[in-house]
Amino acid sequence: MAFFHQICRGFSSSAVRAVVIKHVTIIGGGQMGSGIAQVAASTGHSVTLVDTSEDILKKSVKTIEGSLRRVVKKKFADKPEAGEEYVQKVLKNVSTSSDAGSAAQGTDLVLEAIVENLQVKQDLFSHLDKLAPAHTIFASNTSSLSISDIASSTSRLDRFGGLHFFNPVPMMKLVEVCGTSATSQETFDSLMNFSKELGKTPVSCKDTPGFIVNRLLVPYILEAYHLHERGHGSKEDVDIAMKLGAGYPMGPFELSDYIGLDTIKFILDGWRVMDPNNPSFAPSELLNKLVAEGKLGKKTGEGFYKYK
Ligand SMILES: CCCCCCCC(=O)CC(=O)SCCNC(=O)CCNC(=O)[C@H](O)C(C)(C)COP(=O)(O)OP(=O)(O)OC[C@H]1O[C@@H](n2cnc3c(N)ncnc32)[C@H](O)[C@@H]1OP(=O)(O)O
Ligand SMILES: NC(=O)C1=CN([C@@H]2O[C@H](COP(=O)(O)OP(=O)(O)OC[C@H]3O[C@@H](n4cnc5c(N)ncnc54)[C@H](O)[C@@H]3O)[C@@H](O)[C@H]2O)C=CC1
């Protein structure tokens, strides 16, 4: 509950200067990590993408390549050779590693996009804090956890912030940049500049649950589940209604499958602990059942809908 009332009090002074981010280490090569890696590499940054196994990393690079090919199909419609050259040039900017510790040793920014679990994120950053250079900024792409809580596992509170991207990263223009009460102005400026270099539009937000977008999106999505569970509308009709009636590109069930039902469950379970009496966060039996069955949405081939 404390987190729900936590407000950033401003920036502390820092011993470090604003860091120009040239090399970025992205931990987590899933949907978000590979999308961020693609955009960072496309804008001339050197990227090391880290995940737990070489097999996962191979899949991540394949995803990046596939997404780049979608981009060049339009960008280089009349010049396929130039398009291929572009794909290869961008891919050259991406290296992979299954050793987060060594990847963090020569980097300007460690950006984490692993599972939405506070303890796992803290363990990762606590480990990397001992290995990364002093100037290196740490940032989390968390959807809903407290940046201050994640940062508390390190000794670089002034060089820690939130950098929240949106899915699919190559298409979505927004980045929420979050400084905590301990984040230095220099670190915040570095993260804002980095977001702009990626061609994104950054907004500044406070270290409160869901920042701006998810604070509004989570109750909306959960209400769609509850409406359906009460028998007041089929998934299909709810999705059509919100697309045609509210102008959203995807309805709440389609969007949930796109985000990943495991991530949504992590968020809801966490928020319910913080604010147990809030009806907006009441559990959804349907969501819990799908997650228990391993039906996590598009990434596993089935969620609210089937994709195979
Ligand atoms: C309880 C909730 C808690 C949530 C917490 C976790 C989540 C978060 O923390 C924050 C989030 O990210 S929230 C999710 C935000 N994202 C959205 O709302 C996406 C909504 N969907 C869209 O914008 C479009 O459907 C979309 C852009 C995806 C696709 O566009 P279309 O609908 O027009 O469909 P397509 O025909 O497939 O695509 C059109 C063209 O777009 C390009 N494209 C799409 N995906 C791409 C990708 N991944 N990489 C590269 N290019 C891509 C592409 O040009 C495509 O054309 P084709 O290649 O010819 O198909
Ligand atoms: N899915 C979405 O729409 C969005 C998700 N986020 C946040 O981004 C983060 C990642 O989400 P997704 O990419 O969707 O998840 P995902 O499940 O697609 O990918 C997570 C990746 O992290 C890897 N991983 C887990 N623990 C690791 C560790 N200790 N070291 C290295 N790699 C590790 C996994 O193997 C997996 O490849 C979460 O914190 C999520 O809340 C933020 C914005 C949007």
UniProtKB/TrEMBL annotation:
PANTHER family: HYDROXYACYL-COENZYME A DEHYDROGENASE, MITOCHONDRIAL, PTHR43561. Residues 23-208 form the 3-hydroxyacyl-CoA dehydrogenase NAD binding domain. It is an enzyme of class 1 (oxidoreductase). SUPFAM superfamilies: 6-phosphogluconate dehydrogenase C-terminal domain-like, NAD(P)-binding Rossmann-fold domains. Its EC number is 1.1.1.35. This is Hydroxyacyl-coenzyme A dehydrogenase, mitochondrial. Belongs to the 3-hydroxyacyl-CoA dehydrogenase family. The record marks 164 as: Important for catalytic activity. PROSITE patterns: 3HCDH (PS00067). It comes from the Eukaryota. GO terms for molecular function: (3S)-3-hydroxyacyl-CoA dehydrogenase (NAD+) activity; NAD+ binding. Its main location: mitochondrion. Homodimer. Interacts with GLUD1; this interaction inhibits the activation of glutamate dehydrogenase 1 (GLUD1). NAD(+) binds at residues 28-33, 51, 116, 121, 143, 167, 299. It comes from Parambassis ranga. Residues 210-307 form the 3-hydroxyacyl-CoA dehydrogenase C-terminal domain. One of its GO terms (cellular component) is mitochondrial matrix.
